[in-house]
Amino acid sequence: MVDLTPFLPGLSPVQGKAVVARFDGGRLSSEGGLLALREIERRLGLADRLANCLVDPRAPERIVHRLAEIIRFRMLMIAAGYEDGNDADALRRDPMFKLALDRLPAGEELCSQSTISRLENLPDRRALLRLGRALVEQYCGSFRAVPQRIVLDIDDTFDRVHGGQQLRLFNAYYDDYGFQPIVVFDAEGRFVTALLRPGKRPSGVEIRGFVRRLVGALRSHWPKVEILLRADSHYASPEVFDWCRKNRVDWVFGLAPNAALCRHVAALEKSTAARFKAAPGRGKVRRFGQFRDAAQSWSRVERIIARVEAGLEGTDTRFIVTSLEGGRAKHLYQRLYCARGQAENHIKAWKNHLAADRTSCHAAEANQFRLFLHAGAYWLLWSMRRVMPKHSVWRVMQFDTLRLRLVKLAARVVELKTQVKIHLPTSAPDQAIFAMLLDRLPRLVT
């Protein structure tokens, strides 16, 4: 039989020998690391958890691709760097993706892009509420024991859109149309939930409603857990203060400076600037102060901490407000509040490395479901990173680097009568790490 696969043009010879290449390798894949992601997903059971929240309207006798299988395929695609659902039309024949979904390489193909699109448009608002609670269940199940306190970082991020999607709104700051979803992580980077919303700053009433539902879902699993919220200044609203105080929720929020706040620290700013001027060679001078004050809309005075820093550029003053009565001002600002900056890295991993801003569906419900699917992919890579040795660089590696090093592995798949052989590259630079990862997977908390 004549092989009609064309040769690749434009290849230069090596030491006088012609280089001949064509796509005729058979059952080869560039996704050998799906071996590990498959085992992680099986232990987490995340696809089954999400699928149980949906009602399948299809006739049972005609179902070829179960909802859990479609969700698992989509999450693995995103984790492997294929955020576009159209890629399913090519990847449905990939032998490693087939193995990851418990199908033999010679077996039936996986679902197509159209099937994934129908899945994304399946959930209604009630189903989305169930899916949100399922993600909270996943979060709570990732602990070995009930924690005494959890720290939740709440933030929002702008998501540009390029069509007529529902809920899109023009944002003057970003000078573009988009969404501004609220995203929640805990202090260790676990994904808690995400809420699709219009591209504007959330109001105090909206934040209070979101926090109420989130805390209610968490307390349904852990009734006695202490919760600390961290967020920037536009989450510091009286509605949030009052609700949190009545429901045993602590907070540390940024506070936008104003003339009234600056009057409290005028003397501290002056003395800090004088200290720097006296010894500029020692670098910036940073000092802290605290006082109690209340805006006109607040129901009571709150503890406010000021950080004053003097340097060559002048004096810079920042404020935070907290419900915590104990603790030194310096510790609360530098060690507790500033640690929320790590949430920006988590958002970066979810939004950039996993392309969570691919919200191009017309319906808002479909785009909300996409956020949840990308959250599932985040859990896969976060869990892969979590089982690595605690003080190794792999424990803090970015998702895109982790994917490049441990997922993008060439693999040749050979299906025999009694087994499936997977041949990985002999020259792979991280063979020992990949073997260690598989060996440490039983330590994963599920």
Structural description of this entry:
This protein has 446 residues and is of the alpha+beta class. Among the domains are: 28-122 and 366-443, no CATH class; 257-323, no CATH class. It contains 16 helices and 14 strands. The strands form three sheets. It has an eight-stranded mixed beta sheet with strand order 7-6-2-8-9-12-11-10, with helices on both faces. Strands 1-13-14 form a three-stranded antiparallel beta sheet, with no helix packed on it. A three-stranded antiparallel beta sheet has the order 3-5-4, with no helix packed on it. A hairpin with a 2-residue loop joins strand 11 and strand 12 (314-322). Helix 1 (34-44) packs across helix 14, helix 7 runs parallel beside helix 14 and helix 8 (204-221) packs parallel to helix 9. The radius of gyration is 26 Å and the shape is globular. The two termini are 51 Å apart. The model has no long low-confidence stretch (mean pLDDT 95).
Describe the biggest sheet?
A: 8 strands, mixed
Instruction: Please report the total strand number as a whole number.
Output: 14
CA gyration radius, whole angstroms: 26 Å
The arrangement of helices and strands along the chain is EHHHHHHHEEEEEEHEHEHHEEEHHHHEEH
Query: Which strand order does the major sheet show?
Result: 7-6-2-8-9-12-11-10
Beta-strand share of residues:
15-25%
Helix content: 25-40%
Shape: globular
Mean pLDDT, as a whole number? 95
Low-pLDDT parts are none
Distance between the termini: 51 Å
Number of helices: 16
Q: What structural class do you assign from the helix and strand content?
A: alpha+beta
